[in-house]
Amino acid sequence: MALLTKVQINAAVDRKWEDVPVPEWGEGAQVRLMELSAADRGYIEAGSVVAQGQTPQLKVDSLKVYRQKLVAFGLVDENFERLYSNKEIGDLDGKSGAVIERLAAKVQELSGMGRFAVKEAEGNSGAAPSGSSVSG
């Protein structure tokens, strides 16, 4: 099997998405959540940690809105465009904590983050394929 080219990699549609019911927001209500891009995930994660000398520290203020950020970055419309801009993340502050928690957990699951990354890794922990090499 031939190796992929940069053009093929860039053209690949590889982000998962799922339509999720949110009955708290109306009868039959649902939203579309999409896996975070590498850039979005990095933005969220980098905003939660600050370097203090050699030791990274968690930014408490950033953690207060971590779930809202996950949801805002994951919510997309039927054209897969984000519903909330970075400036609008605070609009989710007044929504039900239980709903935001549930949606944030789904974004994490789609994105292979947190406890979902562990589950995914456990399912993919087979032996390295023959012909692979650990040397550079």
Structure description:
By secondary structure, this protein is α+β, with helices and mostly antiparallel strands. The chain has a domain at 21-115: Phage tail assembly chaperone gp13-like (rbstp2171), CATH 3.30.2220. Helices cover 39% and strands 15% of the residues. It contains six helices and five strands; from the N terminus they run H-E-E-H-E-E-H-H-E-H-H. Strands 1-2-5 form a three-stranded antiparallel sheet. A hairpin with an 8-residue loop joins strand 1 and strand 2 (30-34). Helix 4 packs across helix 5 (97-111). The protein starts with 5 loop residues before the first helix and ends in a 13-residue tail after the last helix. Mean pLDDT is 83; it is low at 127-136.
Sheet/helix structural class = alpha+beta
What order do the helices and strands follow? HEEHEEHHEHH
CATH class of one domain: Alpha Beta
CATH superfamily of one domain: Phage tail assembly chaperone gp13-like
- Number of DSSP strands? 5
Largest sheet: 3 strands, antiparallel
Which stretches are low in confidence, meaning pLDDT under 50 for 5 or more residues running?
Answer: 127-136
Q: What name does the CATH topology of one domain carry?
A: rbstp2171
Q: What is the overall silhouette?
A: globular
How far the N terminus sits from the C terminus, by CA atoms, comes to: 21 Å
Assess the beta-strand content as a share of residues: 5-15%
Average pLDDT works out at 83
Multimeric state of these chains? single chain
